[in-house]
Design a protein that fits this description.
It is built from 20 helices and 20 strands. It is an alpha/beta fold. It folds into three domains: 175 residues, OB fold (Dihydrolipoamide Acetyltransferase, E2P); 169 residues, inorganic pyrophosphatase (n-terminal core); 106 residues, Roll (Diaminopimelate Epimerase, Chain A, domain 1), CATH 3.10.310.
């Protein structure tokens, strides 16, 4: 069971509510997100694209734009080199589209996940050189490609890096951290030393978008503000897909970008929405993160991400429909493979000494290497530990890691970087390649030096407000929507109520994986409550706490002896013009009665 914790942050919630015409509970949720002061609250509730940070605060961005303008005017060939995930695909599309709008001779290449690996490599650079490329422009990669960029420079090519990942560093003899950026002609990355950009949390596609903004400023005769709005939609898509925190500027980008995605004129985006039954429907960050985005990731995992780039670049609706259908089929296949891989990983943990480790390093030789990161994420969710999943590659092993909040994965990996042939990442996720013989030393070092305590492994659910369900109204739920988009850094608010009685229930769904219930509070008021979680664990809880007979009675005639406390959030259903409130149970425990 998770540990329930109630936020206790203080403020004058009634004064905030009166000032911004919101419910005091809404004011309390905003404070729970560490939004303080009238200026911050106003930006959170009412921020617009005009409030986004100036791209000119990014170090080297004018140098990069000036160089590109010279190349465009000189008809020099520019090749954009991206990455095979959502962020890399969207960043590549943004740069390539913006460059072509400015009249550039430009094309794009995206590495093959298995044959090329992440980011720049000598083969990709050689191919660009042999194709007559004058300038390489990276996106969502490049900051850790010092050797590869030096090779490109030795061939006489110019190199501009746009990235958002951590800058490689060394620890000198005095114990000081010294950054080692690549020797490119320009490096645009908000995380690099000396960069004055006020928010480091943007993704690669947003960094690319900022460069196009400056490029349009430098070439005003080519500027197209409608196109910039369209590109902002792709920056929003990538921000959610790359699991960036939805705070500060990212909140504005996603909030406004979601509407642009839903109404996009891009043939590929329209086809992707259609094939997923989302055409002409309001979109949330959930749809990007769990429905649309995985279709792009699937092509990079099981095929080639160039196909996803073609989806967005085509002007042919028929071609777009075909590609979108192929991407969805790939994602459906990926789901099945992920489920099988996750089940295998769980068996390996439970049947070995792995279950005692604080940092899980799981070697699965037969696993498709493109699924390692997803499986690592699933295992992290189950065990609430940092996880690496490693699998056989062409040379040694490759893998991906997913972390927990109290463990900075990239920094910890950097302490034993002599074990790897290649690595990169950030606090919450990382990728690594190493000789097979180093797996044991890797596992041993990370576990011996992790610094994690038992409290770090305990799942915690932060309750925004202990609030009776009777407080919820349709207007309150509509006010909750002002806090969207929800996601990393701005979680969906949750509430708690003690001592609800389960009156009756019904199992729904073709796989019997949904529960619908009527619950009653101490005053006799009844509410509809849904549960979409682990039904097997839920029924085990009911039987162990209240007995098999009472659990069966809940579904056959009704009960009144099952008393539980719940964490929930409210939703508003509208059907044929009628509104109905339902509560979604997130977690549960035995009540006091």
């Amino acid at each position: 069971m998770a540990k329930w914790m109630v936020y206790t942050k203080r403020a004058d919630f009634y004064a905030i509510a009166e000032r911004f015409h919101i419910d005091p509970v809404i004011a309390r949720i905003i404070r729970n997100r560490d939004i303080v002061g009238e200026e911050q609250i106003d930006a959170f509730l009412n921020g617009s694209p005009d409030d986004m940070h100036s791209p000119y605060r990014l170090k080297d961005i004018e140098k990069a734009a000036d160089l590109i303008v010279d190349k465009i005017n000189g008809k020099k060939a520019i090749r954009v080199i991206g990455d095979y995930d959502i962020d890399g695909i969207c960043a590549t599309y943004i740069l390539l589209t913006g460059l072509k709008q400015c009249g550039a001779v430009a094309d794009a290449a995206i590495p093959h996940r298995i044959h090329d690996g992440y980011g720049l490599n000598e083969n990709i650079i050689t191919e660009a050189y042999e194709a007559g490329t004058d300038t390489i422009l990276t996106c969502d990669n490049g900051i850790a490609a010092g050797e590869q960029i030096a090779y490109a420079k030795s061939l006489g090519m110019a190199v501009v890096v746009t990235d958002h990942h951590e800058v490689p560093y060394e620890i000198d003899a005095d114990g000081r951290r010294r950054e080692c950026p690549p020797a490119a002609d320009a490096v645009v990355d908000p995380k690099q030393e000396g960069c004055l950009y006020p928010f480091e949390g943007i993704c690669g596609a947003v960094t690319a978008y900022k460069l196009i903004q400056v490029l349009f400023d430098k070439m005003p005769e080519k500027r197209d503000d409608d196109l910039l709005d369209e590109l902002l939609a792709f920056a929003a898509f990538a921000t959610v897909g790359d699991v960036m925190e939805l705070v500060d500027e990212n909140r504005i980008i996603v909030r406004y970008g979601l509407g642009r995605i839903a109404g996009s004129e891009n043939k590929g985006m329209q086809a992707l929405l259609t094939v997923n039954n989302l055409h002409n429907k309001p979109l949330s960050a959930y749809h990007i993160g769990f429905v649309l985005g995985p279709c792009l990731n699937a092509t990079g995992r099981l095929d080639t991400a160039i196909r996803a780039l073609r989806l967005f670049m085509t002007d042919d609706s028929a071609e777009a429909a075909v590609i979108a259908g192929e991407l969805k089929e790939l994602n459906d296949s990926r789901k099945n493979m992920t489920l099988q891989g996750t089940q295998q990983a769980i068996r390996m943990i439970e049947e070995s000494s792995l279950k005692d480790d604080k940092v899980l390093v799981i070697y699965m030789p037969e696993c498709h290497e493109s699924l390692a990161g997803i499986i690592a994420g699933r295992i992290r969710e189950r065990y609430h530990k940092p996880v690496f999943v490693l699998t056989d590659a062409e040379e040694g092993v490759k893998g991906s890691g997913r972390s927990i909040e109290s463990y900075h994965m990239y920094d910890k990996m950097s302490e034993c970087k002599e074990l790897y042939t290649k690595y990169g990442g950030h606090k919450m996720a990382a990728g690594v390649s190493m000789p097979t013989g180093n797996i044991g030393a890797f596992r041993a070092y990370l576990n011996e030096h992790c610094g994690l305590t038992p409290d770090d492994f305990e799942e915690k659910i932060h309750i925004d407000v202990p609030m009776p369900m009777a407080y919820v109204t349709a207007d309150f739920i509509r006010q909750l929507s002002r806090l969207e988009p929800f996601g990393n850094g701005n979680p969906k608010p949750v509430f708690a109520q003690k001592n609800l009685r389960l009156i009756r229930g019904r199992i729904l769904g073709k796989n019997s994986n949904v529960g619908r219930y009527v619950v009653m509070d101490d005053a006799g008021r009844q509410f509809e409550m849904m549960y979409f979680g682990d039904m097997e664990a839920w029924h085990d809880f009911l039987e162990s706490s209240f007995g098999r007979e009472e659990s069966d009675r809940l579904y056959h005639g009704g009960s009144c002896r099952i008393c539980i406390s719940v964490i929930y959030y409210p939703e508003l259903d509208t059907y044929q013009g009628r509104e109905k409130i339902k509560m979604i149970m997130q977690d549960y425990c035995k009540g006091d009665a």
